Amino acid sequence: MTSPAPIRRWVLGLALSALAILPARSASPYTETFASGMNGWTNSAGSVWRTNTGPASIWGTNNATARVILPADLLTRSSTLTATGRLFTAAYTGNYSAAGISLIGFKISVENDLLQDLRLTVLSGTNGYFNSLASLVATTNTVYQFFFSLASKEAGAWSGSEDSLFSNVMQDVTRVDIFVRNATISRAATCRVDDIVVDGLQSVSSLAPSTNDLLLLTGTFLQSNVTYLVEATPELTGIWTTVQSVYATNRNQIITLTNNGPQLFWRLTIP
């Protein structure tokens, strides 16, 4: 079995797959892996996205992705992967606040050429917020993973509509877009997207003592195969110090820590 290349992760803000087709606009925690097809994701403009197995050297063995080939052409070198609420993309539309969704993210790789533009946009009608990410995808044949807080416009470093409209948009999301544009017209580029996730922000839900001066933290809303940092501080206004790293294998996971004695506050972040 070929091991995939290391994934480069970016997170802005605070650092379940469904088995049935969801009704229209019923926001729900979900991760689209494209293992069973496009599942309602479509291209609202530009070249067509289709499911395709990514190169094993980058994505691992038998890893399905949504793939688009961006031609070396001035007029057709861009495309938008869109969730409008059809089929499984219903999980990405509707009332995020009521569903407890406060995080959105995805993985992406490019082959043959870099991107001139990469934008993730969350829309409600004509209002919306976006993050421009092309400068962060610095090399080809590398999987990058992005996470963004939806707690507020500031928390997720979003651009777009006024700050005061952010909560309204989160209560009625009508579309999610991932826009890509080839950097040059001299050669075609292949772009792959996978693991588009909407979920709650990672958090510590409970703290319990154990034997031998150990503490048990319960981490919740964790994304599988992502490394988190456990940080602690004696005061909420103090400096947070990294205590240890945790590799998540489950959405909810017990984290064992050494009890150093004094009262501490704990949190989870993504490096």
Please describe what this structure looks like.
- Strand 8 (115-124) and strand 9 (127-132) form a beta hairpin.
- It contains three helices and 19 strands.
- The chain is globular.
- With 271 residues, it is mainly beta.
- The protein folds into two domains: 8-199, Sandwich (Jelly Rolls), CATH 2.60.120.260; 203-269, Immunoglobulin-like (Sandwich).
- Helices cover 5% and strands 45% of the residues.
- The strands form four sheets. Strands 1, 2, 4, 5, 7, 10 and 13 form a seven-stranded mixed β-sheet that branches.
- The CATH superfamily name of the largest domain is Galactose-binding domain-like
The count of β-strands is 19
Topology pattern, helix = H, strand = E: EEEEHEEHEEEEEHEEEEEEEE
Structural class estimated from helices and strands: mainly beta
Which bin fits the share of residues in helices?
under 10%
Number of domains: 2
The CATH C-level name of the largest domain is Mainly Beta
